[in-house]
Amino acid sequence: MSTEPQALPINRVGPVAQPGPVRGRRIGPYLVMLPALLFLLAISIAPLLYSLVVSLLRYNLMNPDRMGFAGLRNFQLILSSPDFWNSLLVTVEFVVIAVGLELVLGLGLALVLSRDVPGVGVFRSFILVPLALAPVVVGLLWRFMLNTESGILNWVISVLGFSRTDFLSNTTLALPIIALVDVWQWTPFMFLILLAAIQALPHEPFEAAAIDGASTRETILHIALPMLRYPILVAVLLRTIDAFRVYDLIFMMTRGGPVNATDTLSWSVYNNGFRNFNMGYAAALSWIILIIVTAVVTVFIRLLAGRAGETA
Amino acid sequence: MSDTNGRNRGLVSRFAEHTTSRRQLLRGVGAAGAATAARRSLVATGVASAAISGATAGRAQDAVTLRGIFLPATWGTITQQVFAPEYTEQTGVEVVIDLIGRDAIHDKMGTLFVAQDPSYDLFNVDYNWVPEFARAGHLVPMDDVLSAPETAGDDFLPRALDVARWEGVLYGIPQTVHPHILWYRKDLFDEAGRTPPATMQEWRETVEFFQGKEFGGQQVYGWAAQAARGFGNVHTWLTFLYSFGGDAFNWETMEPALTTPEATEATAFWADMMKFTPPGINDYTYDEVTNDAASGRLATCLQWSWGAFAVDNPESSQTVGKWEFVEVPAGTASVPHLAEWVISVSNYSQQREEAIKFIQWLESPENDVRQALLGGGDPVRTSSYANPELTEATVEGNPDLKRFRRYPVTLEAMETTQPRPLFPEEERWETTVSVPLHAIQLGEMTVEEGLAKAQDDVNRMMMELGYY
Fold this sequence. Notes:
The complex is a heterodimer of chains A (312) and B (468). Chain A is an all-alpha fold and 312 residues long.
């Protein structure tokens, strides 16, 4: 059997099969894309550019008299503000804790539940329930459960003989607690992607490893994980982007507190934009977040591309 | 119209005799709705008498619909469920009230105003937002409304009106006031042989005495008040600040005055008092304080005057009739912080006159009393505080227990109360100050460190805003 890749027939016949004048062939694809491009322009590109313009303005909705061009002043104010650096640190900590744990737990669950054992289907369905809940509801539920006096978690703690803990008013615990709530909700997402990837893996390498006497640990470390690296990177990338924008849980559970222990970048944007109506500042902050997220995404994509190159 | 008024009197007298629970309120509204339906049925079958001719004539304005956003507190709820339908019944003007939370009202007002959106005509406004929205030209000036004879403007509590002004112009008609007053458990105080504290020092001794003691098998904490980050801790701290002679700003220079000796003393006292509070206090909002008061866990609390209805509700409270009220203990003086909600009209409303008429009707002397009887907020008119319908009202099942026994104290508090610093960026100021105050109450910063940070943060904010 030849190992030379077979090109798809459509690639060969494509140019030949398209009748009509050359100009028509050039314009045709663009005409087809035009509605989607216009839609994208209207709902995504235009607001993005508008927000860039706003970020260069001194623009408070409730003080229109002072509106004017401010150049990079908003960016300068942000970068010189200790609150911004605190928010950045808080956000990074949140992302690292939440996404890291979600990956470990999601991968572990996917490896365990990819096997055909009785009842696994029910368990798989059950594990997806948190994913179906609105983050606002999740935040509220956990806030109740963590309540010092009436929360079930503190009740369990007190039954076990420990003193009740005011989790959400503790500057050390509040952020990890919110990250854990995020883990509770989003681990199933990671699990779902990785389960699908595991189930799509070819059987042959595993069979060969088994014949060669590889242990389970060696099989996972040297066969499964390398083969899963792209799905893992994609899942981590998606969760990282999402975790960077965490807002709902903060809103429902701590509103940035205690002190400023959970004051994430998104919360800061909300505070400046919709509490203070300081749109110029909020837009500049949003652009800084976009730049940070883009940088992270670029690193991930480089990793993907690099690995792809290695494989080739 | 006469039957409508008769129905209203029935509702009012029923509520005058009993404490208003939500269920009772809805039952009353249901009865009113049934009466309305019955009358409509009469009209439809041509059996209507001349008695309703006036109401029918009022239907000339059937096309008018007013939309408002109110707080889902008791005053907003009765506006939506009782007064709006009643106004429609009387005038034919439909009034649709949406109830949304405090922060959401502020956000929504901002976005609607910027878009010059006429969707909503009326807004329930926390008074500290008046300067912000008035400066930007989003609210309708209401001095003419106040001076109109039908408004009876002289009767409003002076301080209630003062806080609804920006640069001397009135932008809202008060709907409810609730200054801080000190609640204390009279039964526990009697049992312990103690008298209610008149000074801050006495209050501290009192809460230290009660903290952790058991009364009737129930552990009691010294005091509680709002302490959550955001606005809760700032609102409590302001009463301490004002009562120790401090202020938020040097109003001549607009520089923050958070590191003055008065501010330092007040903050140190407040932080020290936090030792005598229940676990979880740093997350307490109005609801937690009220729940603790109703469940019997507190000996005293610094709470809005209006909230006292909750501890006299036999359906939800274990302390009915046990709470009494005095003015906030004096540092150098007793200066409680004021909470108040006003009603304003959007400058983009296409039905300003109708909106103003509704406010005039809702805040008429008669309806100010009725709002209180129906379980709304504390009245905004001086005359209401002397109205026998209120002063003689008793709690359901307790004919000797005066339902509004807090009113004399509330009225006294309205003589000395101080508002939040009234300037357009007050909301932002609260958010800014709240963070270092939270650090102080959690012990993350000393009083001096926290106040120095607050001073720096506010300074930076004021410079950025162009005040200096």
